[in-house]
């Protein structure tokens, strides 16, 4: 028989995944309808904007994905005209990513729209405690390499 802490942890995890899935799906639908993108694409663009000098491997690390998957995602963003690869000034054998003008415009509009929809979905709830807990868990799991893909 599971102890109370096991039951609480299991219920917490189930609720976390359920809520995350519903919010993610709702944001995907909203962004797709209004901007022709999905949440993961918004996050890629945000990361490139917020971290000058981002390389494909940096995206893979940030989004806990394989380098090959991150590279293919960057290829898709390039085809849409949202990102471009430029020579890495620190190492000419590699490239860094930057937003195009089109990518910046898309990101600016999508961030406002996404923020409005997320606020609507959260319905004015105080998410501070949950945000703190999740940030702590994310940092701990990342530091310990828990759930990191092999490739």
Automatic annotation (TrEMBL):
<dbReference type="InterPro" id="IPR000835">
    <property type="entry name" value="HTH_MarR-typ"/>
</dbReference>
<dbReference type="InterPro" id="IPR036390">
    <property type="entry name" value="WH_DNA-bd_sf"/>
</dbReference>
<keyword id="KW-0238">DNA-binding</keyword>
<dbReference type="Pfam" id="PF01047">
    <property type="entry name" value="MarR"/>
</dbReference>
<dbReference type="GO" id="GO:0003700">
    <property type="term" value="F:DNA-binding transcription factor activity"/>
</dbReference>
<protein>
    <submittedName>
        <fullName>DNA-binding MarR family transcriptional regulator</fullName>
    </submittedName>
</protein>
<dbReference type="GO" id="GO:0003677">
    <property type="term" value="F:DNA binding"/>
</dbReference>
<dbReference type="InterPro" id="IPR039422">
    <property type="entry name" value="MarR/SlyA-like"/>
</dbReference>
<dbReference type="GO" id="GO:0006950">
    <property type="term" value="P:response to stress"/>
</dbReference>
<feature type="domain" description="HTH marR-type">
    <location>
        <begin position="9"/>
        <end position="143"/>
    </location>
</feature>
<dbReference type="InterPro" id="IPR036388">
    <property type="entry name" value="WH-like_DNA-bd_sf"/>
</dbReference>
